[in-house]
Amino acid sequence: MDITFNTGLMGSGKSKKLIDDYLIDPKEKVVLSVSLTEDTFSRGKIESRDGRSLKSINLNRDQFKQNISLLEIIIFMTNTQTIYIDESQFLPKETVEKFVSLSESYHVPIHFYGLDLTFTGELFDSSSHLLTILPSENINRISRGCEASKCSKIAQYNARIVDGKVSRSGETFVEEKSYYLALCSDHYYNDEKII
């Protein structure tokens, strides 16, 4: 199976890994980035926290038919041999299922990069699907440390911070910018102010 899932918490280096993997891949390749607001087929950009970036083509999470059409065009009408997808957690499970099916049918590797957990501690549907269907050797978990002051534990949660405290409820997909920290379980479940 030529499908991989690179996952980790916010700030763990998923986009950096995508850029690194893309740059060393000698094959013809394309980068897609999932968006909540931009239209499928529009130009996008993947940026890592170290300042590097790649041009990409956007996939709008709510435009199923257009997303499938774009992937079919890439597979059937170009010389693309590898596909990289950033922010894959935003894709609906049905889109990921179709992408996996196309990848397997036409032997075009797809590398997914995205979060596994929402800020409520639940798996994103698409990430849950990839974690279920892929063998463990095709899953790369990227770890990072807890961002709470003076903590040296490994972070396990993406925490949405509201008024300095962890918020564990609310809408998963929000268009406005929210503030998030990667936290260990001790700090995620602590109801005291984090910042």
TrEMBL record:
Alphabetical list of Pfam families matching this protein: TK
Binding-site list for substrate: Y180
Active site: E87
Keywords of this entry: ATP-binding, DNA synthesis, Kinase, Nucleotide-binding, Plasmid, Transferase
Reaction(s) catalysed (UniProt annotation): thymidine + ATP = dTMP + ADP + H(+)
One CC-aspect GO term: cytosol
InterPro entries with a match to the protein in the record: P-loop_NTPase, Thymidine_kinase
SUPFAM superfamilies: P-loop containing nucleoside triphosphate hydrolases (SSF52540)
GO biological process: DNA biosynthetic process; thymidine metabolic process
Family (UniProt): Belongs to the thymidine kinase family.
Protein's name according to its UniProt entry: Thymidine kinase
Organism whose genome encodes this protein: Bacillus subtilis subsp. subtilis NCIB 3610 = ATCC 6051 = DSM 10
